[in-house]
Amino acid sequence: MGMRQKDVDKILELGVLLSSERDLNRLLEKILSSVMELTRCDAGTLYLLDGDSLRFKIMRNDTLGKYEGGDGRDPNLPPVPLDRKHVCSLALLENRTIVVGDVKNCREYDFSGHLNYDKEMGYDTKSILVVPMRNREGERIGVLQMINAMDSQGNVCPFPEDTVLLVESVASQAAITIQNVRYIRAIKGLFQSFVRVMSSAVDERTPYNGNHTRHMAAYGEKFIDYLNENARAKGEKEPFSQEHREELLMSIWFHDIGKLVTPLEVMNKESRLSPMERQEFRHRMEIVRLLAKLEHARGEMTAEEHEKVMDQTREAEAFVEDMDKEGYVTDEKLARLNALRERTYTGEDGKAYPWISREEYDMLSIRRGNLSQKERKIMEDHVVITDKLLSQIQFSPDLSHVREWAADHHEALNGTGYPRGKKGQEIPPEVRIITILDIFDALVAEDRPYKKGKTVEEALKILMDGAEKGRLDQELTQLFAESRCWQK
Question: Whole-model pTM?
């Protein structure tokens, strides 16, 4: 009776253990090892139903010293067809436990497969216990197969009746837990697909951002692996568990979600001037030429003066076109722009008009990039929108940091970032990693409208400069450079 109470306690303990496990591979390992411990058997196999066959998930044989599966890779054995020729399939099809005390002398079931395995491996199968696993709705989940129960002296014996009842109880719990874990996995997979779809929607809005998030996610996966490997090499604990890894990667996929509402005329802006502004400037130069032509025809302008106006307007058009797409405006070019701003022409109404408007001058005089302060604020607000959108999602506890990490990826350690100007310890390592990935991909990208992509070495130098100036995490930046995680 004491033994039975001990086994009951073990089942209760196992029930708690199974209910807390969310990783399918670890769950299957726990189920098989616990059942083998309960039955004191020498070998065991756990199968899961896959279509019309049973697939080997975990195999363990203590005498042969074999253990396969449990690491996500199935044993290298063909699946068992779901028919009545195989004892494990028969148990599942008829939803009944099969107990055999002496396999070699059993005529009721076909054990040819087991006996062939014994001959090949030098093993001796004597007793066997096969228990089907079904959930509450009666759906088939899989099969537990135990081989060679052992008595207290270590001798092979038939499986006792009370042990069979224990395994059936565990199999029932296991089936429900496996189904729940599968549901959770399916829901998580659905949510991750949704995240990727939403992220792709951002990238597809513009031809200049088409691969940004995908690149970052790919870099992120390799960088996380590198950080874990680096820690293991030092004998330290890995910084990223599987759950932690998934949380950070989801933050990367979500980091630009706010760009869903960023106006395309800002996000897709190829140059300082808008297409309409460029057209208006060219039209104005054409007016200047036409007026000069009229003055020359009326004898109010010499041929030399007329030709000079022609040359000056064409030079102005070429200069403005150059300035429009310039990555950085030097002092020399700004001086030429200021001189151009002083030029005027006299309209047919006798009034003086500037060659370039105030709005055109303001845009062309932007020192770096092609966005005005107002447009830059609109772009920067994408992180505010990201935070607002993600606040509407009820993240599970293991994804509780996604909103914060995604929305803060433009913060800087020295407080010069946005939108909140966080600094130092206010910025967790995960955000620091996303920031490095984001800057790197933006630098090397060859599809941005406002600049040419930099080489990897140029990008790394800019990252290192940012780290030295206190914007980026120095240690993580150095590790990122060492990881070469952008390489295929």
Answer: 0.70
